[in-house]
Amino acid sequence: MNQHPPTLLYIDDDAALARLVERGLTRRGYKVIHAASGEEGLERIRRAGTQNSADGCIDVVALDQYMPGLDGLETLEQIMAIAGAPPVVFVTASQDSSIAVTALKAGAADYLVKDVKGDFIPLLHVAADGALRQAELQKAREEAEAEIHASRDRYAALAAERELLLREVNHRVGNSLQIIASLLHLQANSAGQEEVKAALTNAMGRVAAVAQVHRRLYTSQDLKSVVLNQYLDSLLEDLRRSAEGNRMSRLTVKAEPIEIDPDRAVAVGIIVNELVMNAVKYAYPDGAGPIHVELTSQGEDLLLAITDDGVGDKVKADPRSTGMGQRIVAAMATKLDATVERDPAHSGTRVMLRFRRTPAAPDKTNNAAAG
């Protein structure tokens, strides 16, 4: 709020009436400056906008309509074109309401009819007070809107920076995991014992499943979700290139373009890697055969199925097996809150996992009871 008395610029060619306005408004706490023409009033308003103005700040203008040279409406139009112009109360002796409408449309804050005796001065005081309050409210609204826009800009800049950092982190993590997978691949190729080779190959597949998620994130516009059909296509292409030679040539994928969060995508990828590799090793003892990966939506649930047409339950247990793959599948299924079951009607092996598209909300009742 201003500490000095509000300054009113009274623009009117009637000097006697101007003195009445000055006396009347000075008693009511205003400082009044008189300009005898529209041109002089405009010059004073322009000077008030500079630091060297002798009149100081002009807070509100009272503008007469009928003056030689520029009339009130012409002067009002030029005042409104000045940046940061004070509010204007339009004053005229005319009873023509069309002048009032024109003045208000041109930007006047208020309008009143004057008389030569100065009886309108109390009304001018009320109108000037109202125009000042209206200007303060408008200024406060503009400042609030400017702060809102500035806050939005700051938030957008921070969000863009955060997204860039996340993309860079995912890029670096993805590269590091890819290096680890490559090292495991090299080590597997140079391993002399088949069980060591198999263990390293399995480990490489698990790392690749995680690396593919990060690769998806830093090459995508969306850092919050992974499109599963694209992810599974890339993951299984990695498996075709890296594992068991040509025995992966009949691996097929059929998945819907379903989006889930990255953590759950990692769990899905690791499960697919374990079950596919298990089928590669055990489903077809005499050679290669088809292995199918399917992902479909069923309402709010997702169904993941890994199917082969191999020997099924007739496969002999491998005495060298550690059961690590089964434990990993069980752990990832728990992470997804998924049910895992085999299809007993299928002649080969068909493992199905059913889980919700989005994680189930935590049970607040149980949590409260536990606390």
TrEMBL record:
SMART domains: HATPase_c, REC. One of its GO terms (biological process) is phosphorelay signal transduction system. Residues 168-359 form the Histidine kinase domain. It comes from the Bacteria. GO terms for molecular function: ATP binding; protein histidine kinase activity. Keywords: ATP-binding, Coiled coil, Kinase, Nucleotide-binding, Phosphoprotein, Transferase. The modification 4-aspartylphosphate is found at residue 64. Signal peptide: none annotated. Its EC number is 2.7.13.3. Residues 7-129 form the Response regulatory domain. Residues 132-161 form a coiled coil. It catalyses: ATP + protein L-histidine = ADP + protein N-phospho-L-histidine. PANTHER family: ETHYLENE RESPONSE SENSOR PROTEIN (PTHR41523:SF8), TWO-COMPONENT SYSTEM SENSOR PROTEIN (PTHR41523). This is histidine kinase. It comes from Bradyrhizobium barranii subsp. barranii.
